[in-house]
Structure formats: structure tokens, C-alpha cells
Amino acid sequence: MATATPVTREIAPAEVRRAGRWSLERFAAPGLLSPSIIAIFVFVYGFIGYTLWVSVSNWGTNRRDLSLRQPLLGTYEDLFGQTRFQIDLRNTFVFTVIFLTLSVGSGLFLAILLDRHVFGSGFFRSVFLFPYALSFITTGVAWRWIFNPETGINLLLDQLGVNALLERLGAGPLKPGWITDPSVVWQVNGALERVLPFTSAINAKLGIPVAMIPVCIAAAWQLSGFAMAMYLAGLGSISHELREAAQLDGASAWRTYRDIIIPLLKPITISILVILGHVSLKIFDLIFAMTGKGPGFATDVPGIFVFDKMFGAQQYNLGAAASIVMLLLVSIVVVPYLIRQLKVL
Amino acid sequence: MASVAAHLPATPHRRRKIRLGRIVLMAVLLLAMAFYLMPVYVMLMNGLKDKSYMTLHDMWKLPRDLSGGGFGYAWDALRPNLGNSFKMAIPATVISAIIGAINGYLFSKWKFRGSDVIFILILFGMFIPYQSILIPLIETLQEIGLYGKWYGLVAVHVIYGIPVTSLVFRNYFSNVPNELVEAARIDGAGIIGIFRQIMLPLSAPAFVVVGIFQFTNIWNDFLFGVTVVFDPRNQPITVALNNLSGTNSVDWTVVMAGAVVAALPTLVVYILLGRFFIRGLLAGSMKG
Amino acid sequence: MKNGPEAVNSLVMDVLHGRLSRRDVMKRAAAIGLSASTIGMLMRISEAAAQGTPAAGGSLEVFSWWTSPGEAPALQALFDAFLAQYPGVEIINAAVAGGGGGAAQAVLQTRLQGNNPPDSWQSHPGHELFDQYVDAGYCEPITDLYTSEGWTDVMPAGLVEQVTRDGEQYAIAVGVHRGNGFWYNKQVLADAGIEVGETMTIDEFMQAAETLQGRGITPLALGSKDAFVAAQTFENTLLGVVGPENYNKLFAGELSWDDDSVKEAMQVTARMFEMVNSDHSALTWDGAVDLVIQGKAAFNSMGDWAYGEFVAKNVVDNIGWVSHPGTAGSFVLVVDCFTLAQGAPNAENARNWLRVIGTKEAQEAFNPLKGSIPARTDVDQSIFSAYHQWSMNSFANDMLVPSVAHGQAASPQFKQAMYDAAAAFLVDKDVETFALMLVDAAGA
Q1: Measured by CB atoms within 10 angstroms of the end CB, which terminus of chain A is less buried, N or C?
Q2: Per-residue pLDDT band at B288 (split at 50, 70, 90)
Q3: DSSP H helix total and E strand total for chain C
């Protein structure tokens, strides 16, 4: 729908009598928007500016010191030199990719299942949607217990006799370390250094921290219902005629979804990716409650880093610098989406 | 029942296949449900236990008695703050929905030079990491006399809700045909009249989506609740919930029970409004 | 509506408590038929009450991080002691869970930075008190209270030193936890034929650990999901290896963090970390305590708040304790104290609050509930458990050393750096890197 043409330009020339009023109303829109604009200007941009300033200041103790640091970017240098922060950036990347894949994948899967108008679909929909209603602070604790290798899911597997069965089949018991596994698999440091020699300055092991995977599952549990709801809405808007036509052409249900329906859902997928993407880059509560920094910082993220440095160590400049980096990361994800928004609408 | 399969020629062979498919489908759904309810089971069962015998190694087991475990304490500790959360979340949700509706209307139907850029600058506010702005936030609120007041917390939620609510309403109103607006204008309706007479009556689905969104976010917020309002008698339930776990001692039965209690209001909202939520999404408020 | 003296009395009480607006005072006073001058006086009192500076009323805001079902009653005991003397004061209990580094710290910091302090707040003495609050000018000294109440005579000098700067005292300690506790399951050790005496050396522990491992029992329970735990285990072991004098020298900058003795302590810590439960990073400290209770592990190194868990689970009889290996003769201080805010909104009430919580009665009421021991040494020992009597004895006679993990021995920056370094060390057990990180942090 092309609504890009400014309304004001469409006034019919004949409406001379009303022209005065309309031109007055030209100022009405910006006027009515101004409270929002001012609030956002102060509470978002003012504070970002403040944080930026703090990040280049000398405020590294409890005493506020807003004088500029020499060299100006010294705090950023400290920040990127910290192995922990390097690990945090890696973790954010890994978390975002796995979490988004899981949420979008399971959201779509559940939506397609419920779209088949199965008995009790309203009930199932509520069940899948409700984790979104809970506070991260407490679900984190429940998930920590569930992914504790000694007590949680592994114990359940034992109690359900799964491991006994596996042993009888000659396989070892299924007992992953879940959130306690400090290993980092699929490391790419070596390969990266060969291509980009300067990356040898990176101390963090670049790969997938195994302990992060359960955290991604917990986060996807909480937010996949949201993705499902969006997809259900999208599926509802695809006409039945289209599907029937595909079916009459002899396409299987699977092919119909793969070739016709899922491609039509692409705009929704992008919306979900952006909305969940910013959740994942800012994630704090869930990980704080569930695993904390994790074994060898395996589940540490910039959000926790900022909190620790600002309120634990009172290194306000370091915390501020880390949050500016977080903001930049978010921007990388979001700005292209926003620009696309501009073009579409 | 508008199942695709129902429209197909029903040969006996195909019907059997469909029935089998239904059973598999149901099995998969039940399995998924078990996974989704697992953490709730853990919270409920351990919340119902007594601290004297609650241990992680028995986390899957049922409570030994029906004494209610941590629920009694959790309810007493959270009840005083339950009202605060309603007092804060309801006005904050309503106000931010109204502001979002007005902004969305203006951004979609009353574009002016630079309005798209302003819209994007506003949207960007969604993405600010809140931990880092607490100190300037508190100072600013003090300047304008809102610090420590429950309505100050409402204001904070309303302000940080502007981006997302404006986005939802803008996308929703973009789907309203411009001809409708034109017609009303020719009939002499002004900028506010069009909003009241045309846009508002159409916007129920978007209000539902924004309402659920904002209510959930505001209800579950902890960081602003604990820093903006310092008097414990005015703090939201999430602060009381967080306080159930202590510093040198912790009783997980109470924490788990409290989690269930604090989640009930949002849960009710979802069960009651869940279908409208999807209808609202369906109505295009989140497309784009 | 009441009449006569009763009505006057009730009106006066309401005025004193600041419950009435000016208009209400006038209305009710006129209804009773009081004289104009009396009404005028009541109005003045009511205004004073509304501004929070009354003689016998107003409010008092106390900020602490005691919130759980196990902690709130102890805090209430302090409030009760205060209210017994000042019944007209309304206490605002601004407690937020999560001490050093947690949510409580974020709230307190933003309030102090924003110039909106509570009247009195909880802190650990030593560096946390001075680096975070006193140096930034947030605290007012209470030296005169120390003099008038004679606190210096009834508290160990090593403790008073921790709240003193330039001859001025800045906080009053209410309770003392012992950070170097080492708890064990008696039954598990008896089954393994291990005897624990009054003290335990590092070698004795290593031997016991070997025996236990041979029997398939986890020697040491660890709950490293909490950031302080790995750091606390290291600091206790460090104290055990280098001794209290050198331990203190490290924080005074007289001994380097890459000294051989420190590296030896790191090696011992690494050996300890190798004999812990495999799920340590999924457990909080109380989960590790539970492993000992369940008999799945033999020992746990933890401050004596762990004792509260044994009481809650009715297993005190099966639990024994010594000092963390090698640290007998030292008492690692984890002290809770309260401050007086600079420009406290209710300064008079705040000073009265501090005076009350420093009394014998208040400390005797508070500590048995909290599971700590009084900062005063002149209290009635008989009201405490056998463990706490043991701890009180140690407190009175042993060398008192501050804890890093709980913010007393070093700056918050160093504490946080040590948390990070210990967390990394727990996984990689790389002594050189650990030492390097601590040297860096001490030099920063």
C-alpha cells in the first residue's frame, strides 16, 4: 500500500475555503508529536550522549569524574583488551544465532501444527504462548535446575528408564554436561588468523561455548510463543484459495508449505528476527538468574559485564563503554530494518 | 473446520492416511506441551514443598504433604505489592497505548517533511540498554520531581514504551485506506476528528496487541521498579519477588511459589486475551 | 467521635505521627473546643511532623540487603529494638536482595549518585565502606556515639579499625560472620574412617580427600554459580598458605600477587578445584551446602551463613566444622555494619537507630536469628548455638583478617577483577595467568 505521498499534497485545489485550516493543521501533526519527540530526545538521545561521555571520561571509581580521559579512547582500548569482554562478544553472537534459529524454527513449526485446526488448538496456543508472560528472573532458576547435569533432565532420563534402555542397547548413558560444560567447540581462531593475521590479538576462543546451548533453549522456550503467534497471524492471512489451488495441483502438504507458504511469510520472519534480535543482544535477566557468567565465562554476555563493572566494580567508564558497544551492535541489526521500514511504508 | 484436507476427494485410502496424520500431529503437540510445561511443573512442585526436605535431587518428585510449602509465605510477602503493580501497570499500559495510537496515526496519515526520519529516531529508543542509563534517568526524574513516585515509574514506562507502541499503531493504521481519510476530510473533519471518528473505532485489534505487549513488559520489569521507586511500600511485585531470595540465605520453595503467584495476572491476561492477541497481529499491526 | 481528654489525646497522637493535614488538625481541634493557642501549637507540631523533623515521630529509612525468609526476621528484631524506644517513628524498610554487585548495589549507587540517600544503609566495613561511601563524601562520622556508648571498649580493636579513618568512626557493626568456615558431614567421614580434630592443615585435607575419592565421594562441594564462591575459596586457601601477616601485606601492597607463596596457594586451590562436584557451575552456594547435607560430598568451604541451612534442614547434629584448611588462628571477617548518611533526611532518628543497634540487647536479639555473632564481645554467650559460641571464642582471640570476596580487604575494582580471575582460574587452572591478572588489578 503506497501511503508515502504526503497527505498535505493531495488537497484538491477547489478546497480553497478550507486551505487556511489545512495549512494550520500542517503544524498540528508535528505539534501533537512534540511531547513524544522531546521525551525521546531527552530520555534516549540525551542519555546515550551522557553514556558516551562517561565512556570517554575518567570516572573509574565511585567519585564522579567527568573530565575527559587521555587518550580519549583509552577505556575502549581497555575494554577490548579484556579477554572477558572478547568472550562476551563471541557469546552474544553465538547466543543470537542459536536463539533466533530455535525460536523462529519452533515458532514456525508450532504455528504450522496449530494451523491444521487440530482438536484443542486454542488450548495448545495458550500453552505455547504463556512462557512469554513470565518474568525471566524466575524462569531462569527453574531452567538452571533443569539443565543441572546431576539433578535435572539427566535425572529425569534416568528415572524414566531412558538410560537403562540405552545401556541395554550397548550405548553409554546419555548424560550431557549442559550448563556446566566449559568447552568451546568448533574453534576457528587458527583459521581466522591465517586469513586475518591481526586477529591473533584475540585471546578468547572463538567457537561455540557448549554451556550456551541450554541457555538458548531456555530463551527460545520463553519467546518462541511470540514467534508462533506472529506466524499464526501470517498463516491466517494467506488465503485458502491459494492453498487449495496448490493442493489441487497435486502438491503435497509439505511442498505447499515449502514452496508457497513459507516464502509468503518472509516479511513476518524479518519482523520476528528484528524484534527477537534486539531482545537477544540486550539479554540480561535470564542469564543472570540461570547461569550467571557460566563456567569460564561460557554464558557471560555484555549485559552482565555492564552490570558487574558499573555496580560491582564501580568502573562507570568501563561499563558505559561496554554499553555503547552493545548499542552499536544493536544498531547493526536494527538500522537496516528501520531503513527498510521507511521504504516499505 | 476449514481444513485443507476436507476439500479433497475423500478416497478411503486417503482418509486412513489423514487419520494417522492427525494422531501423529496430536502426539507431537502433546510432546511439545510437555516440554513447555516442564519449568512450570518444576516451579509448582518445588514451591509446594517445605524447605526442610526440598532438595535439587528430588526436584521432579511430588511434595510429601499438602501444607502449601512456600506459597503461604510468598503470598503474604507479595500481596502488598500486587496492588502497586496493578496501580502502575494499568495506567502505564493505557497511556502508552493512547500515545502510541496518536503517534502511529500521525506518522502514517499526517506525514510531514522529516516525519519518517523522526519516526526512525523514535524507534531506535527501543534498543537502548537500560542498565547503563540508570544514573542519568534518576537525576532527570529528580529534576522534574518524579523520582520515587509511583507515577514517576508510570512515566518512565510510558516514555520507553513510545517506540514500540508507535511502531505497532503506525503499521496498523497504514493499512487503513487513505480514501477513508480523504473522504472524512472533505466532510470537514479535522486532524483530531478523523482520529476519533475513523481511526479509533477501527483500532481495537492494535490496542489489544499493544495492551498485551506493554502490560507484560511493564508487569515483568524489575530494573526500573527497583531504582525509580525506593519506598518498598510503593514498589511493584517484581521487586518483592526478587526480595524473596536473600543475600546470605535463600529459600527456593518460597522463590518458586512467588514466581507462580507473580505470574498469575499476566497469565490471566494471556488466557483471556490470547485469541484476540493473534487476531490483532492478524489485522496487520505487526506486519512490515 | 470521641470526646474529652480521650479525644485530645488521640488528636495529639495523630499529630505527633504526622497523620493529619493542617486542615484536619484545625477541624478536629475546633470540634473538641481547644483554645486558639493550643491549636496553633498543634499546627506547628503537625507541620514539623510532616517535614520529617519531629521530636518524637517522623520516619527513618534503613537500606539493607536482608530480604529472604531467613533474614527478614533478624532485621525486624533490630527494628523492634528501635521501636521499643522510639514508638512514634515510622520505619521505612528499603531492603533489596543481593548484596555486593547485585541489585541492592545498583539501587544504592544510583540513589547516592542522585543525592537521595537513605538515612542509614548496610555496608561491609573496610574498603567497601571507605572506597564506595566515605571517600565520596556520602557518610557522616559517628565518633561521638562510639565515645558516649563506649563501643571501643566492647568491640575488638581489629574490628573498630575496619570502620575508622583518620581517627573518626563511620559505621556501627551489628553482626559478624566468619568467612573461613569448613563444614563436613560427620557420617560420611566416619564411614570413610577419617577423623577431624580441632583444626585441619592443608596436608590433612589433601589426605582425607584422597581417601574420599577412593571411596567415590566428592571431597569438596562447590557452588560456583555465585560469583563470590570461587574467589572466597581462593582467599581462604591463600590465607591458609601464606598466613595472616603475609595475607595482610598483599593488600597493603607490601607483597606482590605473583610472589611464589601466592602461586603456591594458587596451586593448592587448583588441586581443590579438581576435587569438586562436576556440576559446580550450576549450583549456588546453598546447593553446595546441600550436597554435604545429602552426603554426596564431604566438605564445603563457606562462610558461616551456611549454618542457617543446616538448621533449616534439621541436620545440625550430623555436621562438624573446622577452620578452612590451614587457617586456624585466623578469623576472616564478613561484617555487616550500618552507616549514617551525610545530610540524612531524618538525621536524629538515624543517629538514634545507630545507637540502638549498637546496644547489647539489640545485638543479642538480632544475631541468633541472623546466624552471626555480635560485634560486641560482652554479650550473653549462652543464648547462642554451640557453633556460634565456638565462633565467638575465635572472634575474641584469633587474628582478625578482612575478606576480599566480601569487599573488606580491597577496592571494589580489585574485588571484581578477582571474581573474574578466579572464575577463569576455576576452569583453566592456569597459575601464571591468574597471578598476572591479580598483579594487573592491584596495579590499576
Answers
A1: N
A2: very low
A3: 20, 13
CA distance C62 to C163: 19
Question: What is the mean pLDDT of the segment spanning A112-139?
Answer: 85
Asked if A61 lies within 8 A of C131 by C-beta distance, the reply is yes
**C 298-317: CB under 8 A from B:** 303, 305, 308-309, 312-314
Q: How confident is the model at residue C356 (pLDDT cuts 50, 70, 90)?
A: very high
Q: Residue B5: what pLDDT?
A: 42
Subunit partners of chain A (3 or more CB pairs within 8 A): B, C
Chain segment B210-245, per-residue pLDDT in tens: 898 899 889 988 889 988 998 889 999 999 998 988
> Do residue A182 and residue C131 have CB atoms under 8 angstroms apart?
no
* Confidence at C39, pLDDT banded by 50, 70, 90: low
Residue in A124, A135, A132 with CA at minimum distance from that of residue A275 = A132
Size of interface A-B (CB pairs under 8 A): 281
Q: Which residues of C touch B232 (CB under 8 A)?
A: 92-95
Rg over CA atoms, chain A: 26
Going by pLDDT thresholds of 50, 70 and 90, the confidence category of residue A194 is: confident
Question: Which ipTM was obtained for this model?
Answer: 0.84
C-alpha cell at B223: 530494573
Q: Please provide the DSSP assignment of A57-119 as one string.
A: BS--SSS---SBPSSTTHHHHHHHH-HHHHHHHHHHHHHHHHHHHHHHHHHHHHHHHHHT--T
The pLDDT value recorded for residue A345 is 52
Is the separation of the CB atoms in A293 and A212 below 8 Å?
no
User: What's the average model confidence in pLDDT over C15-34?
Assistant: 61
A221 touches chain B (CB under 8 A): yes
Q: What is the DSSP letter of C182?
A: E
Q: Which residues contact B150 (CB under 8 A, 6 or more apart)?
A: B84, B87, B88, B229, B234
Report DSSP state, residue A182.
Answer: -
Instruction: Average the pLDDT over B32-54 and give the result.
Output: 93
Region C40-59 average pLDDT: 57
d(CA C334, CA C391): 13
Residue contacts between B and C (CB atoms, under 8 Å): 123
Residues with Cβ < 8 Å from A156, sequence gap 6 or more? B60
Contact residues, A window 16-35, toward B, CB-based 8 Å cutoff: 18, 21, 25-26, 28-30, 32-33
A147: chain C residues, CB-CB within 8 Å: 282
Burial A194-225 (b: 16+ CB within 10 A, else e): eeeeeeeebebbbebbbbbbbbbbbbbbbbbb
> How far is C310 from chain B, CA to nearest CA, in Å?
9
Half-sphere exposure for C372 (CA within 13 Å, toward CB): 27
Top-confidence residue, C330 or A345: C330
Chain B 244-263, CB below 8 Å of chain A: which residues? Answer: 252, 255-256, 258-259, 262-263
Mean pLDDT of chain B: 86
* Nearest-angstrom CA–CA distance, C72 and B74: 13
Q: How far apart are CA C9 and CA B159, in angstroms?
A: 48
Do C156 and C391 contact (CB within 8 A), yes or no? no
Q: Which residue has the cell 474529652?
A: C4
Q: Does C422 touch chain B (CB under 8 A)?
A: no
CA C355, CA C352: separation in Å to the nearest integer? 5
Q: What is the pLDDT of residues C109-141, one digit of tens each?
A: 888 988 889 999 999 999 999 999 999 999 999
**Phi, psi (deg, nearest 5) at residue C122:** -85, 140
**C-alpha to C-alpha distance for C387 and C391, rounded to whole angstroms:** 6
- pLDDT beyond 80 at B284: no
Amino acid at B138: I
